[in-house]
Amino acid sequence: MNRTTRYALSLALTVLGLATTSCGAASGGPAASPAPDFSLPALDGKTVRLSDYSGKSVVLIDFWSTTCDPCLAEMPHIVELYKKHRDKGFVVLAVSLDGPESRAQVSSTAHDREMIFPVLLDEETTVAAKYNPKRELPFSVLIGRDGSILHKRGGYQPGDEAMLAEQVEKALGQQP
C-alpha cells in the first residue's frame, strides 16, 4: 500500500469514527454524558422537571410537532411502548416544538393520538437547543435511571420502533 492510499484510508477511518461518535448513539457506560436538567410546562398546567425522574425512571424524551408527519406516524408506537413498560419505571416526556399559536392543535393532537404521558410545551425551544440543536424531528433521547444519556435518534422510518423497544427494555434491565 502506498503512502497516499494509507493516508486516505487513515483519514476515512478517522472521519467514520467521528461520525459514529457524534451521532449520539452512545451506550450507557462510563462515557455516557449526563442529561441536562430542564423544566417545562405540560398541557395540564403542571411543570415537569426531568430531575424528578432521576434515580427511579428510564425516560424517553420525544421531540415532535403537530406538523411533522413522521412524528405523528411514530407516536402510536411510542404510546404502545409506554403502555407496555410504564409499570416498570418507563416514562415518556413528549416535548412539542410547536409555537404558542398552535397550543390548541397540540392539545387536540395529544388527545387524538392517546398520548397518556406528559406532553410538554417547548415553545421557545430552550430544551430543544440543549438536546437537539438542529431541531430534527422526530428526535428521541433515551435517559437511564442514573440520569445519563443512553441513546439519541433522529428521524423515523417504519421498523425503527423495534430498535427503540429493544433499547428501552435493555435500559429498564440495568440497575442505577
Please tell me about this protein's structure:
Helices cover 38% and strands 19% of the residues. It has helices at 3-22, 69-85, 103-112, 126-131, 160-173; strands at residues 39-41, 47-49, 58-64, 90-96, 119-121, 139-143, 149-154. A hairpin with a 5-residue loop joins strand 6 and strand 7. The longest helix has 20 residues, at 3-22. It starts with a helix and ends with a helix. 32% of the residues are buried.
Straight-line N-to-C gap? 48 Å
The proportion of strand residues reads 15-25%
**Topology as H/E string?**
HEEEHEHEHEEH
The order of strands across the largest sheet is 5-4-3-6-7
Helices and strands: which structural class? alpha/beta
- Return Rg in Å: 18 Å
Write down the overall geometry: globular
Give a brief outline of the structure.
The protein contains 5 helices and 7 strands. The protein is α/β, with parallel strands linked by helices. Helix 2 (69-85) links the parallel strand 3 and strand 4.
List the helices and strands and how they pair.
Layout: H1 3-22, E1 39-41, E2 47-49, E3 58-64, H2 69-85, E4 90-96, H3 103-112, E5 119-121, H4 126-131, E6 139-143, E7 149-154, H5 160-173
Parallel strand pairs: 3-4, 4-5
Antiparallel strand pairs: 1-2, 3-6, 6-7
